[in-house]
Each structure stands twice: as structure tokens, then as C-alpha cells.
Amino acid sequence: MIERTLVLVKPDGVQRGLVGEVISRIERCGLKIIGLKMVYADEKTAGEHYADDEAWMKSTGEKAIANALKEGRPVKETALEIGKRVRRALIAFISMSPTVAIAVEGHRAVPKIRSLIGDTNPQNAAPGTIRGDFTIDSYYLSDNSGRPIQNIVHASGTKDEGLREINVWFNENELHPYKRIEEDLIYRRANEV
Ligand code: CMP
Fold it and tell me: How far, in Å, from the CA of 180 to the mean position of ligand 1?
């Protein structure tokens, strides 16, 4: 169950000087960083990362609608329209200044990283998580100013997404498998890996 996942410190995180904070949280929990670089993403990389995927756009729009209705705000677009608009804004946002890309490996790395970063909507992110500790952004604020939610980091949502996204940001020769000192302690039997 060793998984690979991609973490991005997005332009808001880089500009706010939170790169070290994010790296430190990944390292100290025991996950292994196997790739790390700063990238000024071009439109191609940004467009591949936020892929033209109707299912993703619909589900992003549905979450936004559910949140707006919960907050008593009117909804004027369909889920797909919202998803398409959010995707366009994300591509522009992530290519506006440098991003730090981090390839991470470890047992159940995907859900572990998701729990470290917290809810997509920082307003709901628990204290102790990256989004909970470092921003008060929300659907409401981002909708009001017509920009993506600035939630500092991106992390892959599934194991398959992790492999796909690492491929978007890294070449194979930029990934560096090695052994961390505690692996002999934590992975005692082959079936735990
Ligand atoms: P990320 O983890 O990079 O994945 C998709 C991003 O879309 C998410 O973080 C948010 O920054 C952004 N996002 C998702 N839904 C919305 C929305 N309704 N309005 C603005 N931005 C959004």
C-alpha cells in the first residue's frame, strides 16, 4: 500500500513564504519526499494538471452549489458552468507565479496528505491542518472576487490521480527513491508495504 501523491505549494503559498512550513509538515509525519522543484508553470502544464475532465468540473461545481445553498446564496450557473469557470481561473492562477511541486511517497500517502492539508474550503479546515492554520479564505470570498479559492496547497485526491499528476510535473529522472531511516521500524513485514 505504498502510494505516491503530488503536493503543490500554489502561488499563494509560495508568495506568503509557506514553502518550508509545508515541506516540514510532510517530512515530520514520516512521509518521504522523492521529488522537489520550483516551477513557473506554463499554460500546458497548468492545463494538464487541471485537466479538461467533465466529471471533475461537474463535481467541483456541485460542491460549490451545495455550499452556496447552505449559505443562502443564489446560484445562477449549472454545476458544469461553474466547474469550467473554476478550471479557467485555476489555470490562470497557477501559472501567474512560481509553484513548488513535491512528489511524496509512503504508506497510504494520499489520504494522509489530505488529512494534513485539511478541507478544500479553508473556512471548514480544522485547526492543525495547513489550510486551517494559514488561511481564512472561503467559497464566499473567492466567489465575491471572482478568483479560485486560495488554499495554499493542492494534493492528489486518489492514488491514480497521484500517479497522473506526478507525471505532469516531474520527469522520471527527477524522482529519487531512497530509504528513510525509520522504514525498517515501521514497515516490518512485506505485507505492510
Ligand atoms: P485544489 O486542491 O488545487 O483543487 C482544485 C482547486 O479548485 C481547489 O484546490 C480550490 O483552490 C479551487 N476551487 C474548488 N472549488 C472552487 C470554487 N467553487 N470556487 C473557486 N475555487 C474553487
Answer: 33
Cβ of residue 122 lying under 6 Å from some atom of ligand 1:
no
Q: Does the structural domain 2-40+98-192 have CATH classification 3.90.1150.10? A: no
Taking only the tens of pLDDT, the chain with its 193 residues reads 899 999 999 999 999 999 999 999 999 999 999 999 999 999 999 999 999 999 999 999 999 999 999 999 999 999 999 999 999 999 999 999 999 999 999 999 999 999 999 999 999 999 999 999 999 999 999 999 999 999 999 999 999 999 999 999 999 999 999 999 999 999 876 665 6
- Domain borders along the chain are 2-40+98-192, 44-96
- pTM for the model stands at 0.95
- Tell me, in angstroms, the distance from the centre of ligand 1 to residue 171's CA: 26
Give the DSSP H or E segment for 8.
strand 2-9
Q: Cα–chain-centroid distance for residue 118?
A: 10
Q: How far apart are the first and last CA of the chain?
A: 5
